[in-house]
Design a protein that fits this description.
Blueprint: H1 3-8, H2 13-30, H3 36-58, H4 64-83, H5 92-117, H6 140-143, H7 148-171, H8 177-181, H9 183-194, H10 196-206, H11 208-218, H12 222-239, H13 243-257, H14 266-290, H15 297-305, H16 307-315, H17 324-333, H18 344-350, H19 366-375, H20 379-382, H21 391-399, H22 403-423, H23 428-446, H24 449-473, E1 481-484, E2 489-492
Antiparallel strand pairs: 1-2
Length: about 500
């Protein structure tokens, strides 16, 4: 049986879709406020998103995250919202158009990915090894797989850098632990992170994803793994930064999905879907905890056990679980009240090297512009207030009715990365994708395109520099070879 038929014959996928369709038909006849097209588009998102995500899961393609997230955010959650009377006061027209944009985006991404995956023009695989004479050539260290000793050194170097970044972010302002836990201390800490030195330190923290992935893929270094988990938990309490959850979650998920040796059953996919819902709920709880005056363990317990916290998660439009509201706002405001952004997101990425203070307004992250469009408060831009438009929303406000072209190109990117994973093993490219690709996708789904790019860039630059150092400079374990640091070329010595 081929993969496509295996998806359709799954014992779990088909019943779940059937139940969703039955619920949708029931809601259509039971509710006067929900239109037929609105329900049809939501059911289309559920059916297509679920089938594509399940197919990608079976094929060890990490892009399943995007399709599954789209199905959850724009399909399953709205369906549950109708059942539990969650209404955000948008017109049926706005909701239907928004659902159509999400549905077309899923289809366009799928088609773009299929075009690349079915293409027979592939680059040659990375060599398993290279001879000694080619080690000094430019870029040979980039595609050469790491030896076990080099992997060990890389793990400890990335762990050290990440630890230094954590310590600098924690103590760079000279605050005590008690002051950090307070809301005022946490706000000072967030301001510090926004500064150049804090941004660089946060980039060093993100390298912890590399250490976690290498520790997992090598099967060693449990101390490094659990130490970074502990640091992540500490950072979540001190900074209440929800992205730190992903620093641990991203490399673990990639290792399990893309690098697993056994075929995954569809049932495991549904466990993953429930896991994503759980993560979104945790993120919502952290959002509530973030705005508490006192941030200690007892306060966290109170937030977790307070029913009102879960009302925020499931009913408040600012909750991550209700990210579809951002797309509703995008459709409602653009272009009726705000002009298209004409690719601002990607222009900002191309200008990443230019500090925002020196750009003269040329470089402004889309999430700030979108927050201003929603709030209509000029202070939003001055204070860098952010609102994330989701991936379909970002494509819509950037390219208008040609959003589907951008979605198609995103799908091409998914396919290209999946091919890279199969061609590279334990080298810079593979370790970068394994460490940060899931993080990139999750932030992109949210609509934080520039932030996801910068995190990926940080990891890439650090990983390339450290790998170069380990392979070209720090080579005490290679017999018969000495290194001239002035020219970085090997001299063959007498074999010992």
């Amino acid at each position: 049986m081929n993969n496509s038929r295996a998806v359709f014959s799954s014992r779990l996928v088909i019943p779940a879709i059937a139940v969703s369709i039955v619920l949708g038909i029931g809601i259509l006849f039971a509710s006067d406020s929900v239109g037929a097209l609105e329900i049809l588009t939501v059911l289309g998102i559920i059916v297509i998103g679920t089938l594509v995500a399940s197919d990608r899961w079976k094929k060890r393609n990490i892009s399943f995250i995007v399709y599954m997230a789209e199905a959850i955010i724009f399909g399953y959650v709205p369906l549950a919202g109708w059942i539990f009377n969650v209404d955000f006061q948008f017109s049926v027209t706005v909701v239907t158009i928004s659902n159509t944009i999400a549905l077309v985006s899923i289809l366009a991404m799928y088609m773009g990915e299929e075009v690349v995956l079915r293409s027979r023009k592939t680059a040659p695989a990375a060599p398993a090894s290279v001879n000694e004479a080619s080690r000094a050539t430019l870029g040979s260290w980039f595609t050469e797989p790491l030896s076990p000793k080099e992997t060990d050194r890389l793990v400890w170097l990335t762990f050290t850098l990440s630890l230094m970044g954590f310590l600098y972010l924690l103590f760079g302002r000279g605050l005590s632990i008690g002051e950090m836990i307070s809301r005022e201390g946490a706000e000072l800490r967030l301001e510090f992170i926004a500064e150049l030195s804090g941004t660089l330190a946060r980039g060093m923290v993100s390298v912890g994803m590399v250490a976690i992935y290498l520790a997992l893929s090598s099967g060693r270094h449990k101390l490094v793994f659990w130490s970074l988990v502990a640091l992540d938990l500490l950072a979540i309490v001190v900074f209440t930064e929800r992205s730190y959850v992903l620093y641990f979650f991203a490399p673990v998920l990639f290792q399990y999905v893309a690098m697993r040796k056994k075929e995954a059953r569809a049932g495991v996919y549904w466990v993953g879907l429930i896991g994503v819902l759980f993560v979104l709920t945790v993120v919502g709880i952290l959002h509530v905890f973030r705005w508490q005056v006192r941030r200690d363990f007892q306060t966290f317990v109170n937030v977790v056990t307070d029913p009102q916290s879960y009302e925020f998660v499931f009913y408040h439009p600012a909750s991550t679980l209700n990210s579809r509201v951002a797309l509703y706002n995008a459709v409602d405001l653009f272009p009726r009240q705000h002009d298209w952004l004409y690719g601002n997101t990607y222009k900002t990425i191309l200008l990443f090297w230019l500090p925002a203070s020196m750009s003269g307004g040329l470089k402004v992250d889309t999430m700030y512009i979108f927050a201003y469009a929603v709030s209509r408060d000029p202070a939003t831009l001055r204070e860098r207030g952010s609102d994330h438009p989701t991936l379909p929303g970002d494509l819509y406000i950037n390219f208008g009715y040609f959003f589907w072209i951008g979605a198609f190109l995103w799908g091409c990117l998914f396919g290209w990365i999946h091919k890279l994973i199969s061609r590279h093993k334990n080298d810079v490219v593979h370790n970068l994708i394994g460490s940060a690709w899931v993080y990139f996708l999750l932030l992109s789904v949210k609509g934080s395109i520039y932030q996801s790019f910068m995190a990926f860039l940080y990891c890439g630059l650090y990983l390339a520099a450290i790998t170069w150092f380990v392979k070209v400079i720090w080579v005490p374990g290679r017999e018969g070879q000495q290194w001239n640091l002035a020219h970085l070329r090997p001299r063959q010595g007498a074999l010992r």
